[in-house]
Amino acid sequence: MQKAGLLLGLCARTWKSVRMASSAVARRNPLENKVALVTASTDGIGFAIARRLAQDGAHVVVSSRKQQNVDRAVATLHGEGLSVTGTVCHVGKGEDRERLVATAVNLHGGVDILVSNAAVIPFFGNLMDVTEEVWDKILDINVKATALMTKAVVPEMEKRGGGSVVIVASVGAYRPFPGLGPYNVCKTALLGLTKNLALELAQRNIRVNCLAPGLIKTNFSRMVRKGSPASHWDPKRHLLRRRFPFFLQLWDDQARLESLKATMQIKRIGKPEDCAGIVSFLCSEDASYITGETVVVAGGMPSRL
Fold first, then answer.
1. Which of 47, 183, 244, 246 is catalytic?
2. Structural contact between residues 280 and 31, judged by C-beta atoms closer than 8 angstroms
3. 208 close to 201: Cβ distance less than 8 angstroms
4. How many CB atoms are located within 10 Å of the residue 189 CB?
């Protein structure tokens, strides 16, 4: 009897070890064999998200408006041994959205994850000076295209039994940034879009959540000229797909930098990688009971309506 007890104890410990090892493997690859689309993902936050999803086991399709940017991002991530492909996609064009989805389906058999990261900031100035053309452009790309991109992937997600959508908004949705009225408005609209999509798509086993980055340091944060009026708006020059291009010369202006850091609990500027892990979590089974929520990644900057 004593031997039987020892044997049972040994078996229990062995089984526990197997389960722990299995769980560890699952944690290391929480997105194993999932297929992810990430828009505007050749630089900055989008690129960091694409890299993290691939590191966590997903097959990732990156995209950008320019082929050379796609090629560079894919080459970089291939060099890290990650499963990444890419295609050109201007999210405001229906044919490009369709091509992005078709690329994932043709190469990997379907779509499990969509990260909608593309956005534009075509104006800096007073809200009363915004032209109809600027309103149309920013709402078309930042809000309507996000809804239509989601619509394009839903049928493919349904074929896989469900999926996860993450929409990238901004802390400006909660705390408007001066001079960026239309941008702030569209990001607040994305919070509402997230909740409405989550409500409608839950019955299809598709979760929809939102990421609201704060001040994140990217290469594009130097590229929009302060005071660009709507009357001088040039799409080729100002349609940049990142979070905070309005912080002109931020990294060279120590006084402005310190002023912004004073509004944060964590006294530093965020990195794109600070956003990536949150997105991977939201797309994983660990977040299987989370939908319709917005996660703010802003160093403790005030962020509630």
1. 183
2. yes
3. yes
4. 18
Contact present, 142 and 186 (Cβ < 8 Å): yes
- Written as six digits, the tokens of 25 are 């493997």
Q: Which residues pair with 86 in a beta bridge?
A: 62
pLDDT in tens, 23-65: 444 468 999 999 999 999 999 999 999 999 999 999 999 999 9
pTM value is 0.83
Q: Which of 203, 163, 172 is nearest to 190 (CA)?
A: 172
**Catalytic-residue membership of 183:** yes
